[in-house]
Amino acid sequence: MKTLLLIDANSLTHRAYHALPPMNDGAGNPTNALYGLSSVLLKLWREERPDYAAACFDRPEPTYRDAEYPEYKGQRPPTADDLLPQIIAARGLFPRFGVRTFEKAGYEADDLIGTLATRFADAEGVRTVILTGDRDTLQLVRGDKVVVRIPLKGISETMTYDEALVKEKFGLKPAQLIDYKALVGDPSDNIKGVPGIGPSSATAILQKYGSIDKALAYLEDDRLMRKLEGKEKIAIQARRLVSLQCDAPIEAALDDLLVSFDEDALREHFEGNGFTSLVKRMNAPAEEPKAVKKESPPERQGRIFF
Q1: Pick the residue with more confidence: 188 or 261?
Q2: Three-state DSSP string of 211-238
Q3: What range does the domain containing 236 cover?
Q4: CATH of residue 218
Q5: Are residues 271 and 122 in the same domain?
Q6: What is the pLDDT of residues 175-186, one digit of tens each?
Q7: What is the pLDDT of residues 74-114, one digit of tens each?
Q8: Model confidence at 143: pLDDT above 90
Q9: I want to staple 209 with a disulfide (CB 3.0 to 4.6 A). Which of 128, 214, 251, 295 is the partner?
Q10: Are residues 190 and 121 in the same domain?
Q11: Do the beta carbons of residue 199 and residue 189 sit within 8 Å?
């Protein structure tokens, strides 16, 4: 089984930035996020090298979510001054690892990831792994063919969600997580959800009826459903906001995402940025993957950073 790795570049760069202390290159430019990102990619490439890969970035332009809901992500602070230039520089880092990058005005990185994951979900002999810190992408999980790998602590340890683990953790199917977030809201995106409905009620509604649409038919008959009465429009709008747009107009065939990179050029890049420890790792034999603890489900936990 070959692997297609889809990377939420903004998410991973943010996590690297917050996981490491400030660093600078010889010219005084901040590099801690770029170092952490390089370290993650180097470890992946040496130990679990994917066959295909793409990195997706957010754009500064507003999306349809901002137009429909001006409060969308309104609580988030502006990007730190020393992080912004590193996010920009990351666009040039991924190609050094042989990774094609994607960004599209009007779409978030998650939408692009959703588009690529959906496009290649049925590719024969290919498993898609989404690397992100954003749980919105859990709605894309399909069996063990499309899985989501989420950092648990900084960017050092990860948990891989296949469909079985999604059901185990949330009691719902991956596709139902869209309606779940529509009901309870999403504080990280400043989406309020339906007043009076919390995680337990939302889970009970969806376990019983399957979806918001089916549940609305029982507003008068079910005591639990009365919490939704008069709030139907809130739930439907929230569902539009949390649903990933998986038909973004980006052109890419699977073969366009083949990974190919020049190790010598990458080593030279690390040397130029003062990443001497990464150069040493490149020159050392690759380590065997660390054993997974017995109590951890196989292929679900792992390390991608040290």
Answers
A1: 188
A2: CHHHHHHHCCCCCHHHHHCCCHHHHHHH
A3: 174-242
A4: 1.10.150.20
A5: yes
A6: 999 999 999 999
A7: 888 899 999 999 999 999 999 999 999 999 999 999 999 99
A8: yes
A9: 214
A10: no
A11: no
